[in-house]
Amino acid sequence: MKIFHTVLYIGLGVMLLAFGLNKFFWFMPDFDFSGYPEAAYLFTSLRYSWSESVGKGYIMSLVGLTEAFVGVLLILRKWIPFALVVLVPISIHIVLFHVFVNLPNIGPALLVALLNTYLIYVHRDAYKTLFA
Amino acid sequence: MNSTFTTILRIVLALILILFGVNKFFDFFPMFEMPTAGANFIESLNTSGYILYVVGILEIIIGLLLLLKKWVPFALILLAPITFNILLFHLFLDVSDIWVAIVIVALNTILIYKYWKAYRPLFQ
Q: Which domain holds residue B26?
């Protein structure tokens, strides 16, 4: 079980680090949003929100930084319960984004959300004091 | 954790959140006048059809938890990402109304500090 969990931490960590860095360097191909105008509009307006025509946006960089940060913590297996809780809002929003505006590409979102949920369950004792 | 000061901060934050949360559904007080970049950003969140409602529901839930003094450390950590984004939104896109953000950030930070013991296990 311990090895299995280590594989999950490092797998999720590497995935998040890659997705996070991609939000700065854009080395991965974008999803194909044709036929999903809301998705294309939302994604494009957030992706290019830093460019001059739109103004000084920050969302994509914030999500990217957070993903990379959580990824590194998971790879190093440092502060794992904290890393998992920081990831929660991102997991929820990537799932909601795909559920509401772009259902066919929901795969990676579900994978991240499932791993996040399972690993939080594994560490559930660390969160007990929050509900005191 | 139970000083009068903490109690006042908790209840003030709860009332602000419930007010802003409910406003996302009923629009009973007018939005700030925003610069174009900020207005565009809110407009794209509106287009998504769900984001502002999710934020509104979370604000109401967090407000109620704080008001009822139930699961306070959980409520505060649930609020942290919202607080952070309120701050960044105003910092980058609508700096003239940043005082609202600063009030929320201050309340959230002080209360997390007061309840810090509950968060220790997250860093082990």
A: 4-123
List the single residue in A46, A81, A93 with the smallest CB-CB distance to B44: A46
CA distance B19 to chain A (A): 22
Radius of gyration, CA atoms only, chain B: 15
Q: Using the 8-state DSSP alphabet, how is residue A35 labeled?
A: T
Query: Does the reported pTM lie above 0.90?
Result: no
Q: Are A56 and A127 in contact (CB under 8 A)?
A: no
A-B contacts at Cβ under 8 angstroms: 86
Total number of domains in chain B: 1
pLDDT (tens digit, 9 = 90+) per residue, A72-88? Answer: 999 999 999 999 999 99
**Torsion sign over Cα B41, A38, A105, B53:** positive
Tell me what ipTM this predicted complex has: 0.82
The answer to whether residues A80 and A9 touch, using CB atoms and an 8 Å cutoff, is yes
